[in-house]
Amino acid sequence: MLRKKFIAASSVSALALALSGCVGAGNIPSASTPITQSEAQMGAEAHPQLLAEFGGAMTGSQAQYVEQVGKNIAVHSGLGNARESFTVSLLNSPVNNAFAIPGGYIYTTRQLVALMNNEAELAGVLGHEVGHVAARHSQRRQAAAQQNSLLGAAGAILSGILLGNSGVGQQISQGILQGSQLLTLKFSRSQELEADGLGIRYLNQAGYDPRAMASVLQSLALQNALDARVQGRGNASIPEWASTHPDPASRVQSALATAQASGATGGVTNRDTFLTRIDGITYGDDPSQGVVEGRQFIHPELRLAFTAPQGFFMVNGTDAVTINGQSGQAQFTMAPYSGNLDNYVTSVFSRLSQQQQIRPQSIQKTTVNGLPAAYGSARVNSGNGQVDVTVFAYQFANDRAYHFLAITPAGGTSSFNEMFGSMRRIDAQAAANVIPRVIDVVTVGSGDTINSLASRMAYSDNQVERFRVLNGLTSSEGIRAGQKVKLVVRRR
């Protein structure tokens, strides 16, 4: 998070379209049709932005393994020259996400890979994304979106934002989430089911257990539900894979039925091989991008920390931290800084809307925990009534500043006052204490139990539940001696 990279709103909008899915529009090219030159060019142009937006591409043996499995499954898509045409990337991102764009570019995050429990599940997820490419879902969504306004399509990405569908609302919404990992549009349910079916077909053809698609969807649904409980939310809807690939829980039975209808029996899972290959993969936040620990966000490299309000949860993106709650949303990020906080706050407001100028009523100076700070608010009319937009900025160096951009119902800015006042520097010792979590694959011993293994998980809460979800175990399933299982541990 907060790497020194700034993406223009127009580029973000175009990228959102490239990632999108749709209710079908136009003719679907045959799956055997090779990836066209225009599709390859479209993907090649978006690919570097996506890598930057989702933490960058990982390298090394784990990335090579994911690429190998992805290319092997792509061959079964029927797309001409698939092995050479597809680009498979393992992303250094702490969210459960996988997606595809035209031109044969498919992606999965290390977090989603860590949630999987065998190679068949990895092949299923990558096969699902290959299916989106083969069915040209993104192009169909793009064609439909272009029939509307580009702005309208970009505005549609937002989930639960307080603003309505007015032009200014869409612009502010786009601004508050710019640079976060929420910039994706939903595929339609019919497209998701079609991609599931194609992924299952590819699993069959490759000799994998076709039930793996259902099991990975089940793990994802359980993880979403666990995250909701841990974060104190009332539902399991969060802006991760469940947003770009809606409702994994309801798709589990459909995937199982499709696998059974295929008539395939058995098939390999390559569980132990998979677990051996992902051993040591980073789990959760990468300290180089900052880490979320409960209500705390700590960035050891930038030497800063803040505390989210009670009842809010955070999503840590590559370039921003998004803070979500019932009474508002905020984003913590950075912008170019020339040494004047007043100008900095004004510049953030000026980038929010292309349709009408938004200016703060005034800009106030203050000091927060020794940091020079400035803030301003503006009241804006939106489709759902009036809202307050607040920018609160902090100077950390003569050439470096950060800010919160918050949206609340009119009069509700105080929901974030505690957070605004919590921004602080951290010292070298506090920075050194931020140790990454990694997956540690262990073999169950004769005296091990779920409780004893779960107690080794690097969390202070919900250890048993986390262990079960991580290992794809239902509440009634046990473990046996000699079985490989995953733990999440701290490792320097």
From TrEMBL:
The keyword Hydrolase appears for this protein: yes
Signal peptide (residue range): 1-25
EC number: 3.4.24.-
Keywords for this protein: Hydrolase, Metal-binding, Metalloprotease, Protease, Signal, Zinc
Gene Ontology molecular function: metallopeptidase activity
Known cofactor(s): Zn(2+)
Domain LysM stretches: 440-487
Pfam families found in the cross-reference section: LysM, Peptidase_M48
Keyword Protease: yes
PROSITE patterns in the cross-refs: LYSM (PS51782), PROKAR_LIPOPROTEIN (PS51257)
Enzyme class: hydrolase
Record-linked InterPro entries: LysM (IPR018392), LysM_dom_sf (IPR036779), Mito/Outer_Membr_Metalloprot (IPR051156), Peptidase_M48 (IPR001915)
Protein's UniProt name: M48 family metalloprotease
